[in-house]
Specification:
The complex is a heterodimer of chains A (463) and B (380). With 463 residues, chain A is of the alpha+beta class. Chain A has three domains: 2-134, OB fold (Dihydrolipoamide Acetyltransferase, E2P) (Beta Barrel), CATH 2.40.50; 167-255, Dihydrolipoamide Transferase (Irregular); 258-462, 2-Layer Sandwich (Chloramphenicol Acetyltransferase), CATH 3.30.559.10. In chain A, 27% of the residues lie in helices and 22% in strands. In chain A, the strands form six sheets. In chain A, strands 11, 14, 17, 18, 19, 20 and 21 form a seven-stranded mixed β-sheet that branches. Chain B is of the alpha/beta class. Chain B folds into two domains: 33-329, 3-Layer(aba) Sandwich (Rossmann fold); 336-379, no CATH class. In chain B, 44% of the residues lie in helices and 8% in strands. Chain B has helices at residues 33-36, 41-66, 80-87, 103-108, 113-121, 130-133, 144-159, 177-188, 208-211, 235-250, 280-287, 291-301, 307-329, 349-363, 373-379, and strands at 95-97, 165-170, 193-199, 202-203, 206-207, 227-231, 256-261. Chain B has a five-stranded parallel β-sheet, sandwiched between helices. Chain B is globular and about 70 Å long. Classes of the chains: A alpha+beta (463), B alpha/beta (380). Chain A binds chain B through residues 5-12, 33, 43-51, 83-92, 147-153, 157-164, and chain B through 55, 59-60, 62-63, 65-69, 71-72, 75, 77, 265-267, 270-273, 275-276, 279-281, 283-284, 326, 329-330, 332-333, 335.
């Protein structure tokens, strides 16, 4: 009969492990406690001894795959009815139910037959990621050896494993690297005795992750299969921009205390102004939108409320105030969300901003944004209005103090000169880092941006 | 009254007493010899079998953890001589206060194999009845058991008994305040307690050299406690040292401290990866000092251990491993309500309320035993 081995929790509360290698293949006969392969948890690389003696019938996860605790990883054909060695036995089968039904002859017979049926689970593991791949040599190669002189020696009867040939680092940093899809072996550690530090990984990520995409792609050995698909679910490995952005968002969301404020404004005058611009020779061929107006308004407003254009430097315990504005613009690209920024946006006039916004959007959508454009942003704007959305609570681009979300401009019944009229109305949503920006500062900033978008002439007053 | 001149524990004395070398040769030792005089080849063979069996227990339990059958296991690989030599020097009346790693000691003490596994499977708070085998439950809090042992030993004195208490501790525990307090009290009251310190060189990832700039055995004389430093991988030396300490305790000589210099060849627990903090060359060095290999060599060379005897030992280890595995896998999960059973010895109003609440909570699940209709409304 078939017996399955589900990945156990190998270290006090772990939820997943990565298959590092298999030492057996389908068809192999294995003995009890024979080493089947190695898995790496967040804590250690460990050998998995076989819970059964039998013939391997299926290996369900390739090396490099992250597996949830409880998933079947290998199955065996074991002689005779297996004791549930791979699985905890349930509590004593309910003899009570039989007693309760005493007197019902046929039912009692049926109950008696139950154990036999239960003793033969029929499930055949799906051979995900496994096929006619004859190259057992495709196991991941050992990572570069960093320290130690003695060759790794396999333990004898002890079963203890000896392994020292992987880059020196610490568990949290290993996890960070794995989350970012970075192979530690490709880094040079700057710490003591070549220890790879968090800074090393982040620096590597900063250099490579957003740009060519070369580094954020996990090494081939870690992604032998693409999406794993069945009828009802599609599973896609988390990697690349998605993975990096997710890590950045999580870091931002759980580091900076976010506050979000909303302001709904009548931008009819602003829209009229944009129409006027479209007719001007200087703006011929340029796209002018509420985003253009917002970019200029933000540029002017951060000069008046400098707290919004700062950075919390936790490492040095300093607040960095910028005397320039690198304005980030969130862009949905085929590779995922990117936030390239316009360098020195504070020096640009409305036309300059319109030109820069056009170029930036085009480059991002073509997937050609250079890494330099992604680094060094100081404040960001995201235009959710293009999707017909009114408001949201944007998450700060990591390291920045504020982000402004533009809602859709809608014709809305609105109070106008003492009457109700159909006006062009939009909502601005501003999130800021409350460590850097007080409520009053954030509120005044938002009010100023709103005032300039509602009536661009206010820019003459505030500029 | 026993001659206590065996106190060699001056702070600078780093002599490691030994009776069997790493290659299996008997060597003389003035201090230990009188206490090992009674051990013949047959008894040494029994010690050998004990060590082989507990190494097999360790291997099987480690495998069971990897197979999802145990939540955790603290390997004792490499420390077999320290455990066997010490426990075999004791008598049934002596009370043992172990750490979590003395599972080999528990086995020799008569603890049921399934019982030992039950704690590490998370099915029971203790795998044995402490009063039945005179061995306390495994202490997880580092060093706390030294206080328990000292207090117990003080009680023995008050009751006029001749038995003793032994506290097992590790090198890391010697940095704990509890251990120092225990030694102060043990010396002050001349309590019949043995501090049996297995210096396995690593307090998880911290090397012993960081915590102690002198041999650990050198600390005890500062409290007025005689100490001995022995080769912890030499089962005979450990046995003799423990006999020395036990004789002192039984004759009113007060506390003793033994530093058994050994090495933890496996991880701290199954949740640890020692390759992250120690060199493989160090492991190799200690593999050359294996506690079992040296006795095998000695007994083979003197003709005691022939193929037949070796087969018997192997058969015993196999049988123990099979019993342990079957007992572990076949162990029923505890009933949820047993969670409340051993919190207090008597009635307790708050606990009773919690028990009642939990009972009704469990009763709210589909398929739960009938008779909980009153709870259903609240839970739906």
């Amino acid at each position: 009969m078939i017996a399955e081995f589900k990945l156990p929790d190998l270290g006090e509360g772990l939820t997943e492990s990565e298959i590092v290698s298999w030492h057996v293949a389908v068809g192999d006969t294995v003995t009890l406690n024979q080493v089947l392969g190695e898995v790496e948890t967040a804590k250690a690389v460990v050998e998995l001894p076989s819970p059964y003696a039998g013939v391997v019938t299926a290996i369900t996860h390739e090396p490099g795959t992250m597996v949830e605790v409880g998933e079947v990883i290998i199955a065996f054909d074991v002689a005779g009815p297996a004791i549930g060695a791979g699985e905890r036995r349930d509590r004593a089968p309910g003899a009570a139910s039989g007693a309760g039904e005493a007197g019902g002859g046929p039912i009692a017979t049926g109950a008696g037959a139950e154990p036999d049926a239960a003793a033969a689970p029929k499930r055949v593991p799906t051979l995900v990621g496994y096929g006619a791949d004859p190259e057992s040599s495709k196991r991941p190669t050992r990572r570069a050896r960093v320290f130690g002189t003695a060759a790794a020696v396999t333990a004898g009867a002890s079963g203890a494993r000896v392994q020292g040939d992987r880059p020196r680092s610490t568990p949290p940093v290993r996890k960070l690297a794995r989350d970012l899809g970075i192979e530690l072996a490709s880094l040079v550690g700057s710490g003591e005795r070549g220890l790879i530090t968090r800074e090393d990984v982040l620096a590597f990520a900063g250099d490579h992750a957003n740009g060519s995409g070369a580094a954020v792609e996990a090494p081939a050995s870690y992604t032998p299969q693409g999406g794993i698909t069945d009828a009802r679910e599609v599973r896609t490995p988390i990697k690349g921009v998605r993975k990096f952005m997710a890590a950045a968002m999580v870091e931002s969301a759980f580091t900076a205390p976010h506050v979000t404020e909303f302001l709904t404004i009548d931008v009819t005058a602003g829209m009229d102004f944009l129409d006027k611009l479209r007719g001007l020779k200087e703006f011929a061929g340029l796209k002018v939108t509420p985003l253009t107006l917002a970019a200029k308004a933000v540029s002017l407003a951060v000069a008046r409320h400098s707290a919004l254009n700062t950075h919390w430097d936790a490492a040095n315990q300093e607040v960095v105030a910028y005397n320039y504005l690198n304005l980030g613009i969130a862009a949905a690209t085929p590779r995922g969300l990117l936030v390239p920024n316009i360098k020195d946006a504070h020096e640009l006039g409305l036309r300059g901003l319109a030109v820069a916004l056009g170029e930036l959007a085009e480059t991002a959508r073509a997937g050609k944004t250079p890494p330099a454009d992604l680094a060094g942003g100081t404040f960001s704007v995201t235009n959710i209005g293009v999707f017909g959305i009114d408001a949201g609570t944007p998450i700060l681009n990591p390291g920045e103090a504020g982000i402004l979300a533009l809602g859709a401009v809608r014709r809305t019944p609105w109070e106008y000169q003492g009457e109700i009229a159909l006006r062009q109305v939009m909502t601005l949503s501003l999130s800021f880092d409350h460590r850097l920006v007080d409520g009053a500062q954030g509120s005044r900033f938002l009010a100023d941006v709103g005032a300039m978008m509602a009536d661009p002439a206010m820019g003459l007053v505030m500029g | 009254m026993l001659d206590t001149s065996a106190n060699t524990g001056s702070p600078t004395d780093s002599v490691i007493h030994q009776l069997i070398t790493a290659t299996g040769t008997r060597v003389p030792d003035e201090v230990l010899a009188p206490f090992a005089a009674g051990v013949d080849n047959e008894q040494l063979l029994k010690l050998y079998q004990d060590m082989v069996v507990i190494r097999r227990i360790d291997f099987e339990a480690t495998a069971l953890q990897r197979q999802g059958q145990l939540a955790l296991w603290p390997p004792m690989l490499g420390q077999e001589a320290a455990q066997i030599g010490s426990v075999r020097a004791l008598v049934a009346e002596d009370f043992i206060f172990p750490t979590y790693r003395e599972n080999g000691v528990a086995y020799c003490r008569g603890a049921n194999l399934t019982g030992i596994m039950s704690t590490w499977r998370g099915s029971a708070n203790t795998g044995w009845d402490p009063h039945e085998i005179n061995m306390a439950t495994p202490q997880i809090i580092i060093g706390a058991q030294t206080l328990h042992a000292t207090g117990y030993a003080m009680g023995l004195t008050m009751e006029g008994k001749e038995s003793l208490a032994i506290a097992y501790l590790g090198d890391g525990a010697t940095s704990q305040g509890d251990v120092h307090e225990a030694m102060v009290f043990a010396a002050s009251f001349q309590a019949p307690v043995i501090f049996f310190c297995q210096n396995n060189h690593w307090a998880i990832s911290e090397p012993v050299g960081l915590q102690a700039h002198v041999p650990l055995a050198g600390r005890a004389p500062g409290y007025g406690i005689p100490s001995l430093r022995v080769d912890g991988n030499d089962v005979l030396a450990v046995l003799a040292a423990t006999q020395w300490a036990a004789a002192r305790a039984r004759s009113g000589g007060g506390p003793s401290f033994i530093e058994a210099v050994t090495y933890r060849m496996g991880p701290h627990t199954t949740a640890d990866d020692p390759t992250r903090y120690r060199e493989t060359s160090e492991l190799e060095e200690w593999r050359g000092k294996d506690p079992i290999a040296r006795v095998r060599a000695l007994l083979t060379n003197n003709g005691t251990l022939d193929a037949g005897a070796e087969a018997e030992v192997a058969a015993k280890a196999d049988a123990v491993a099979a019993e342990l595995r079957a007992g572990c896998i076949g162990m029923p999960d505890p009933e949820p309500m047993t969670l409340f059973d051993n919190v207090y010895t008597g009635e307790h109003a708050i606990l009773d309320r919690q028990r009642d609440h939990y009972s009704r909570y469990l009763g709210g699940f589909a398929g739960a035993p009938a008779g909980n209709s009153s709870a259903e409304g609240k839970l739906s």
